[in-house]
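Entry 14. Ran structure prediction on the chain below.
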Amino acid sequence: MAGEFEATVEIDRPVEEVFAYLADGRNDPEFSPRVQRIEKTPAGPTGVGTVFRSTVKDAGMTTRREFRITAFVPPTLIRWGEVSKNLVTATEGGYDLEALPGGRTRVRIHNVLEGHGIGKLLVGLALGAARKDAPAFGARIKAAVEAS
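Output, structure tokens:
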């Protein structure tokens, strides 16, 4: 079983600024408390093929995650896929950004979660938790970008 969760938030910053912040996955710990550590490979600007490796804590379990950028269209679209092997993975996800009047930006974040092995039994719980947290997650992104 796989399923998607999403959140949409409006940020009081121009689309180029929001895009630059979100394109640097090393900012994720500022709005995602589950991310304990994250690094980027290779050095330089983010683009298709960039990999972010992180250590995250979910439901009391610490795991290592690896995401590869699969599409990158400044300043409107970022896509990724998780290439690490965990019980539940985000097989695809991304940010869609839209410039709004007054120098504001609408951001839609979405992830498709998929279970593997025994994770097929857990993915429903993970999706439920992610969907429940989605509005707060969007609010945390908004606060982090506006504070940067």
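Residues 48 and 57 are 26 Å apart (CA to CA). Will compare against last week's run tomorrow.
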